[in-house]
Amino acid sequence: MPENVDIISVNVPVEADLGKLVITEPLRRPFWAASGDGTTFSIRPWPGGRPSGPVGSDIWAILEGYISISPISIRFGHATAPLRGLLKRAGLM
User: Fold this and answer.
1) What does DSSP assign to residue 66?
2) Per residue in 58-86, is it b (16+ CB within 10 Å) or e — as a string?
3) Cα separation of 35 and 42, whole Å?
4) pLDDT truncated to tens, each residue of the chain (93 aa)?
5) What is the pLDDT of residue 76?
6) H/E element holding 88?
7) Is the alpha carbon torsion for 50, 51, 54, 56 positive or negative?
8) What's the confidence (pLDDT) of residue 46?
9) For the chain, how big is the Rg over CA atoms in Å?
10) 67-72 and 7-11 as β-strands: parallel, antiparallel, unpaired?
């Protein structure tokens, strides 16, 4: 792995052209919604329509037909409040 890279995220659009490859940054806002009824849990992609992102983001690349490669560095924080809120909204807590 390259220095300071823990994960490489690769997103490949349907019917990808191997000649269209771009290094991107991951979109930092979700483009999905979680829901649950107490017994099941699901994630719905693209609630409210197709997502968009700035040029150079992974979402932009996929929507433009590029294979997106994003180097990601992991920070081992442990902010539990956002996860707790997500699970509560999904009916799992």
Assistant:
1) P
2) bbbbbeeebbbbbbeeeeeeeeeeeeeee
3) 6
4) 889 999 999 999 888 899 999 999 998 776 677 778 878 878 776 666 677 789 999 989 998 999 999 999 988 778 889 889 989 998 888
5) 79
6) helix 81-89
7) negative
8) 64
9) 16
10) antiparallel
User: 11: which residues sit within 8 A by CB, 6+ positions away?
Assistant: 58, 61, 62, 67, 68, 70
Dig out the tokens for 74 from the structure.
């992991």
For residue 11, which of 56, 66, 73, 53 has the smallest C-alpha distance? 66
pLDDT value, residue 30: 67
Domain-wise residue ranges, the chain: 7-87
The type of residue at 44 is R
Burial class (CB in 10 A: 0-12, 13-18, 19+), 92: middle
In 1-93, DSSP assigns E strands to 7-11, 21-23, 32-36, 41-45, 67-72
